Each structure stands twice: as structure tokens, then as C-alpha cells.
Amino acid sequence: MILIKKVGAITALALALSIPGAVAAETTTATVPLNTLTAREQAVINFQNSIAAFRTAQIARQAAIRPLADARQAAVAAANTAFTTAIATVTTQEGRDAVVKTRKDAIAAANTTFKSAVEALGAAPTKPTKPAKPAKAEKAPKAPKSGN
What we know:
Elements: H1 2-28, H2 39-89, H3 93-120
Helix pairs in contact: 2-3
């Protein structure tokens, strides 16, 4: 029992004395970062960050377009409702043609307004391109087998 305690104490003392020397020896050597990334790994990380930014920009753009689309849909619905109401009271072909033209013009105006409002938002965000995969090394041709 006493022998085990002595061996344990000697081991602990030897370990404690050797650690400062090891630390001092490491400080004199050149330090190399342990977590260096290859160019491909860095490109993948940059791509992932770019995709996240793209998604955020796309969501923001869709949020800006949604009220515009709702307004266009409301204008088309109003034109259709007005058409339905007016067509019921029309008795002549000229009157019918005028109501149909009015409806088409209202829908065209709603679509034009929507398109110009979307264009005023600016260009849509462009999706980043994936980093190129490293080229595979060609396999060395196999040596021909001998006839023996």
C-alpha cells in the first residue's frame, strides 16, 4: 500500500516537473494553427453565408411584393364585380362590348401598375453559384499482366 503511494507521488512529481519544460519548448517552435481550412472548405463556407444572405433578401423581396400582389388581385376582383353588375343591365351589343372593354382595361391597368411597382423595387437577388468541386485525379493505367 505504501509502495503504491510512493510510486503515485513520484509519478505526479515527475509529471509536474516535466510540464513547464514542455510548455517552454513549445513556445520556441513555430506555431501552426490547428484549424486551417483548404480553399475549397473556405469557398463552401462563403457559399453557405451567401445562400443565407440570398434567402434573407428573397424573403424581404417577397414581403415587399405581397401587398402589391394583393392590391392587384383586389383591383381585378373589383373589375370583375363591376363587370358582373354592369353586364346584367346591358341590352345591346355595343353596351356589352363597352362593358367588356372597360373590364379588360381595368385588369390591364392593374397588371401594369403591379409590374411597374415590382420593377421599382429593383432587381431580384441573384442566387450565388456553388463552388467548383476539385477535379478528380485520373487513375494511373494498370500495368499489363505478365503471361506467366
